[in-house]
């Protein structure tokens, strides 16, 4: 306590707020701790009020966070939104993994030529199934394992976020749409590709679109800063896993297209799906 009083007197700490109850003071102290900052609580006026102190260098950011927290607390109950967590849908992922392994074990050059993504076959010959069937084909064993490991993480998180069935429909749709967009970009040049990575990064895009909107809406920030962190995190992961490390065989454009389509689908799902209000 002597060190706290000395720091306050010498200007080493700034007063962030005064509260009449220890419960309210603790709530705002948790806001500061959630920012990964330290704070100090002192009882004053003979126990009539509680003063909350913090590093003056972060005073502006802390007061802004206090203002946002106060707005959230003042919202009517029917405007507060509960973010649901669904089951992992692990059985669907296992089914997906079995399908990929089975196709890989039976994949021949003729199968690859007939079912890979192809710009000319899609737009000139009307072979509409190729953007979807290409998601089940792989160039080698390392390609397959990489998609199962990285894709497994993203796909399970999607199932947790939007639900297993809807999540997997969105994942496969984002991969197929990403393949269509990639083929359209190269058309009329001849282009072909294969692999589940378009759907893998589609799953990452779904997470970004979903979480960016929730970060903006649920916290009632109503400004772009609420969506920045999910977008930055998604971009970092896309660059980390999807850039290919300079490998010319890696279809970076397909990764980017799958990510973009997934982000749009994730945004559409969270906007169109009714959200459950928090009970009063």
User: Structural class of the secondary structure composition?
Assistant: mainly alpha
Strand order of the largest sheet: 1-3-2
Largest pleated sheet: 3 strands, antiparallel
- Let me know the average pLDDT: 84
- Could you tell me the number of beta strands? 5
Question: Could you please describe the fold and organization of this structure?
Answer:
- By secondary structure, this protein is mainly alpha-helical.
- Helices cover 62% and strands 8% of the residues.
- The protein contains twelve helices and five strands.
- A three-stranded antiparallel β-sheet has the order 1-3-2, with helices on one face.
- Helix 4 packs antiparallel against helix 8 (141-162), helix 9 (164-186) crosses helix 10 and helix 10 (197-217) packs antiparallel against helix 11 (225-242).
- The protein is elongated and about 85 Å long.
- Mean pLDDT is 84; it is low at 276-280.
Outline:
By secondary structure, the protein is mostly helical. It is 62% helix and 8% strand. It has twelve helices and five strands.
From the structure above, extract its key features.
3-stranded antiparallel β-sheet; mainly alpha; 280 residues; elongated; two-stranded antiparallel sheet
Layout of SSEs?
Blueprint lengths: L1 H8 L4 E6 L2 H13 L4 E6 L4 E6 L4 H16 L15 H16 L3 H7 L1 E2 H5 L6 H4 L7 H22 L1 H23 L5 E2 L3 H21 L7 H18 L9 H21 L8
Antiparallel strand pairs: 1-3, 2-3, 4-5
Helix pairs in contact: 4-8, 8-9, 8-10, 9-10, 9-12, 10-11, 10-12
């Amino acid at each position: 306590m002597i060190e706290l009083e000395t720091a306050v007197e010498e200007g080493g700490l700034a007063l962030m707020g005064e509260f009449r109850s220890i419960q309210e003071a603790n709530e705002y102290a948790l806001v500061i701790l959630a920012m990964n900052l330290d704070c100090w609580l002192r009882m004053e006026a003979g126990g009539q009020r509680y003063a909350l102190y913090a590093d003056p260098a972060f005073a502006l950011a802390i007061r802004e966070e206090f203002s946002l927290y106060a707005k959230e607390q003042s919202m009517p109950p029917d405007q507060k939104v509960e973010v649901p967590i669904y089951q992992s849908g692990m059985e669907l992922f296992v089914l997906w993994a079995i399908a990929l392994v089975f196709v890989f074990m039976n994949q021949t050059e003729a199968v690859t030529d007939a079912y890979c993504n192809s710009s000319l076959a899609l737009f000139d010959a009307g072979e509409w199934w190729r953007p979807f069937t290409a998601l089940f084909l792989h160039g080698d064993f390392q390609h397959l394992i990489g998609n199962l490991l990285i894709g497994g993480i993203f796909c399970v998180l999607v199932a947790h976020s939007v639900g297993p069935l809807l999540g997997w429909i969105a994942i496969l749709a984002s991969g197929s749409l990403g393949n269509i967009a990639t083929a359209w970009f190269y058309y009329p040049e001849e282009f072909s590709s294969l692999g589940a990575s378009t759907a893998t990064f589609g799953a990452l895009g779904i997470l970004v679109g979903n979480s960016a909107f929730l970060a903006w809406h649920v916290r009632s920030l109503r400004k772009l800063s609420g969506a920045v962190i999910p977008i930055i995190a998604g971009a970092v992961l896309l660059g980390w896993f999807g850039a290919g490390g300079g490998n010319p065989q890696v279809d970076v454009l397909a990764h980017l297209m799958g990510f973009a389509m997934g982000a749009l689908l994730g945004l559409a799902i969270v906007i169109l799906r009714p959200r459950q209000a928090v009970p009063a």
